[in-house]
Design goal:
Blueprint: H1 4-7, H2 12-34, H3 37-62, H4 65-89, E1 91-92, E2 98-99, H5 101-110, E3 117-123, E4 128-131, H6 132-136, H7 152-168, H8 174-180, H9 184-194, E5 198-203, E6 209-217, E7 225-231, H10 234-283, H11 300-349, H12 353-389, E8 393-396, H13 397-410, E9 419-423, E10 429-432, H14 434-451, E11 458-465, E12 469-475, H15 510-520, E13 524-529, E14 537-544
Parallel strand pairs: 9-11
Antiparallel strand pairs: 1-2, 3-4, 3-7, 5-6, 6-7, 8-10, 11-12, 12-14, 13-14
């Protein structure tokens, strides 16, 4: 019979709880991403770009050359009709013609002038002779602010017009700028003085833009007046164009905000989580903390997370190594200290000189052992700093190991023929730090000489192997290494002394330092026994070669 636990279906409340928790987590991550400085920078950059696009649209719609030309052509045609009618009916006298202003006003009153346009007739002195607004009885209504009140609306309108003119002015020619600043009186005077039509956009009394055409009335080459035809709907047409564009700009803003939020969620959110994780690692005091997992991402964020994870794991490993190293150091130092303390306590109660001399000898040996141990520990602790500080440059292993061998022979640390170097022809270059790399082969040669019997030979071979690697082997004729200790000998403070060697003469750090330096240079080192068994040990160092 199936158990109730196995057959029970998830309750709606449990599913609802999981969905609610998921939505809460999503809301938290979304809020964390959208309100970060990086997300604000992304949204601001996108909205600024949209703002420049809007300004460009404003500038382009501000100066509609095609619309202006069409309006000017239409106004010119209508003004020309009025001028012809006025010339036929209201110009009198010969040989000096003159404009009859009364007849001109009556004629203009009978002509049709559409809504939004205005026709003006002036005599040769620039005085107003007829106005279609007055003839049609049209009245201009303007609301004035209460006495003493500030005209905020007027200031806003003036500010908007100033900004609009500033943006649109970038695309105006010098002639168009002069036309904008020309008054109606100046336009009439220019048309009557030159006898040519004057057209363009100028300012109205309240700062609005007016498309205006002024034609001189000149029968028999004599200017007797002028006809001005104005249109006041240019601003309304431009505003209608802008209103038609606004939905598209609003939609673009929504798309930019949506994609900016998505981009922020995809970039700012993970970066914020990584920064929080880095802060947690800093405050954890060496305790391992969970890190965000972005391994499924195939972009730079995923690469950053993998690099951050690798760096953090390396940091944890280093902290563990430091803790282990400190424990090992404490253990190794306690041994000679315990021996010294015991000898010192017994020395006080020693009865004869022979016993006291023996105890003093024990203390001296342990002090020497302690001194060597502290020196090796100090060298090992400074090794990381040296590897990080020294610069990498090409090093010729033939020259480096050859110099080391000569130092051993010249310094009588080994007899002639006990240390043999065998190398292939040509340089063997590696990218390395010369001093630490020299310590590798010094430690290996010291180790081989220690285990070599009287008359034994230490052989060093350098040769190239496939895949651009260099193989350096150091062989001795000693008893070899127990199979179970082939890897253990590279651990710190592990010592396997040859028979007859004095106790405490080795700290057990030499081979550990060798592996640390070789690994820092991208290489590998291991130990093996020569064949047949008991014929000696071989240490193999493999390093990447420099292409020549």
């Amino acid at each position: 019979m199936a158990s109730d636990t196995a057959t029970r279906k998830p309750s709606p409340k449990g599913r609802l709880g999981r969905v609610t928790a998921g939505l809460t987590g999503l809301h938290a991550r979304l809020g964390q991403a959208l309100f970060s400085r990086l997300a604000l920078g992304i949204l601001t950059a996108n909205l600024v770009a949209l703002g420049f696009l809007a300004l460009g649209t404003l500038a382009l719609t501000e100066n509609r050359t095609g619309l202006i030309d069409a309006k000017v052509d239409s106004l010119t045609s209508q003004a020309d009709i009025i001028r012809n009618v006025i010339t036929e009916t209201a110009v009198e006298g010969a040989p000096e013609p003159a404009l009859n202003t009364r007849v001109a006003a009556e004629v203009l009153a009978r002509l049709y002038v559409p809504e939004g346009t205005r026709a003006l007739i002036h005599d040769r002195d620039g005085r107003l002779a007829a106005d279609s607004y007055l003839s049609a009885g049209r009245v201009s209504v303007e609301l004035l602010p209460p006495p003493g009140a500030r005209d905020i609306g007027g200031k806003l309108t003036g500010g908007w017009r100033g900004f609009r003119d500033f943006v649109g002015g970038f695309f105006l020619s010098e002639t168009e700028r002069e036309a904008r600043e020309r008054s109606l009186t100046e336009e009439i005077a220019l048309a009557q003085s030159t006898g040519d039509p004057v057209a363009g956009i100028r300012r109205g009394r309240q700062g609005e833009r007016v498309v205006s055409v002024t034609l001189p009335i000149a029968p028999v080459q004599t200017v007797v007046g002028s006809v001005t035809y104005e249109s006041f709907d240019y601003d309304a047409l431009i505003a209608a164009d802008r209103l038609a564009i606004l939905p598209y700009l609003g939609f673009a803003a929504l798309v930019i905000v949506a994609f900016g939020a998505l981009l922020a969620l995809r970039i700012a959110g993970p970066v914020k989580r990584l920064s929080d994780a880095a802060r947690s690692v800093q405050l954890a005091g060496g305790r391992r903390v969970p890190l965000p997992d972005f391994s499924g991402r195939r972009d730079e964020i995923g690469d950053l997370e993998q690099a951050f994870r690798a760096m953090t794991e390396a940091l944890y490993d280093r902290l563990d190594a430091i803790e282990s190293f400190a424990a090992d150091v404490s253990h190794e130092i306690k041994n000679p200290l315990t021996s010294i303390r015991s000898a010192a306590e017994v020395l006080i109660t020693a009865k004869d000189d022979a016993a006291r001399a023996r105890l003093v000898g024990v203390i001296q040996k342990d002090v020497g052992r302690l001194d060597r141990l502290i020196t090796d520990i100090s060298n090992a602790s400074r090794l990381d700093a040296e590897l990080a500080r020294d610069s990498v440059r090409p090093v010729d292993l033939h020259r480096l190991i050859g110099d080391i061998v000569r130092v051993y022979i010249d310094g009588e640390r080994c007899r002639d023929g006990q240390l043999v170097l065998e190398a292939e022809g040509g340089p063997a270059l590696v990218a390395a730090r010369e001093e630490p790399l020299g310590r590798v082969f010094t430690n290996l040669i010291d180790n081989a000489l220690t285990f070599s019997p009287p008359g034994g030979v230490v052989r060093i071979r350098i040769r190239r192997v496939p895949r651009g690697r260099l193989l350096i082997t150091v062989e001795d004729d000693g008893p070899g290494i127990p199979p179970e200790a082939l890897e253990t000998i590279f651990q710190r403070f592990y010592t396997q002394r040859p028979s007859g060697a004095a106790f405490g003469t080795h700290s057990g750090l030499g081979l550990a330092i060798v592996r640390q330096i070789v690994s820092a240079h991208g290489g590998h080192v291991h130990a093996e026994n020569r064949h047949p068994p008991g014929s000696g040990a071989r240490f193999v160092v493999e390093l990447p070669a420099v292409a020549q």
